[in-house]
Structures are given as structure tokens and as C-alpha cells.
Amino acid sequence: MILTTSPLFLGCAFATAVGYLAIALAHRALGVKSLQALFALTLAFHGASLLAYWIESPGRFGFAAALSVTVWMVSTIYGIETRLKLPLRARWPLAGLGIAAVALNVLFPGIVHPQLPSVWLPVHWALGIASYGLIGAAVFHAILLRRADTAIRHALPDEGHRPVLTQERLMFQFIGAGFVFLSATLIAGVGFTEVLYDSGWRWDHKSVFSVLAWLSLASLLIARWRYGWRGKRAGRLLYISAGLLLMAYVGARFVLEVVLVAPA
Fold first, then answer.
1. Options 1.20.120, 3.40.50, 1.10.10, 1.10.3470; which CATH number does 117-264 get?
2. Which of 8-22, 201-215, 235-249 has the lowest mean pLDDT?
């Protein structure tokens, strides 16, 4: 575990965590306009923390940074969708994820890559982060969809959620977009390994989990198109796909950066 010393990064990360916590705790005391402004400011601080992270060390990257970017993308996408009006049930999950993401990024800033071995590597990273964010947004919508369905079944009060069919349509749109970016990530990965290794594509743990995630998402999209899959069945396969994708990079980097690091 290595603590980064950049005052700008630490300041933005602290402001982000405070903002997410205030969104979760002070929503009843704040009006709609104030809550929207707070959410927008928190997203801005979260984005600034990521920018400061790369300004401090442009070649640095790790599992916590990937998680932080993913959470920022999910929060931003959902904020745009809802026009920064967060339903009550969505505030705690977003706040918890946001606080955890920035805290992990401070505690585990990742490793430095002083020289990029291939021009494909930044492309591979960018596409991979985009696929993480889009699939993360799909998972978040699946969670909200399940909660909305539970509320309907138990006649619980409406808390401003979208209609179930709208949530479901958005979920599959994000799945489709994430699948496209994941496919592009794998293609860029082939180009990266062709340059770095004479043998080309390598079947390591990251490649295996990435391909399994791709196959799982492809199966879900085909099942939706051919058999009209929806509800819990589609949600379970989405969670499996997201878990495989998470293990492909974040899980592997966590083991390398945290579990296998020799104690000082």
C-alpha cells in the first residue's frame, strides 16, 4: 500500500468523498436545486481527482484507478439521465461506490509505466475503461430495475424511479454499447500483444476472463434478441458477465499490486 502525496489529488479526493457523503445523508435537508448543484460539484471534484492523478504521474495506472474511473462514468451517466435528480434509493449505492472508489485510489495509486511498449496500449486502456463504465452503468440499472420491480410487487411508495420497461430498455442499451467497446478492447489487445510478444495473443488469466465476459455478454444479447430474455434471468447473466469482466483487469491487478506485494 502506497499513499500518494500530491496535495491536489488528495484535496480533490477528499472533497469528492465529502460530496458523496453529503448526497447520501443531507438529501432531506437540501432542496432539489441544491441537491442537483451538489451532485454536479461532486462529479466535478471526482473528475478533477482523476485528472490530478494522471498529471502527477502520467504513466501510472492500477486497479483502484480503473474502479474510480468506472464509478465516475456510472455516476455521470446516471446524473445526465436523471438531470442530476437522484431518486432516494439510488443515492446510497452511488455514494458508497464513490467514497470507496476515491479512497482506494488514494491508498493504492497503482504502478508507473515509464515507457509504453506499444501505441496500442493507451488505446487498449481507454477502450477497456469505456467498456467497464458502460457495463457498470448496465449493472446499476439492473439493480434499480430489481428494486423498482420489488416496489411494485409489494405496493411500496414510488420514489421517482423510471417505469420498469424504460429501465430495462436502458439496461440493454448499455449492455450493447459495453459489448461493442469490449470487442474493440480485445481487438486492440491483439494489436498490443503482437507488438510486445513475438508469439502474439497470450492466453493468460486476463485474456481468459475477458473472453469469458465477452462470450457471456454475447449470449445475453442473443438470448434477448431471440428469446426475449428479461427480468431476473437477464440480470443474473449480466452480473456474471460483469464479475468476469471485473476479474479480467481489476481482480488481476489487485492480486499483483496488493496480495503479491512483498511487505516492506
1. 1.20.120
2. 201-215
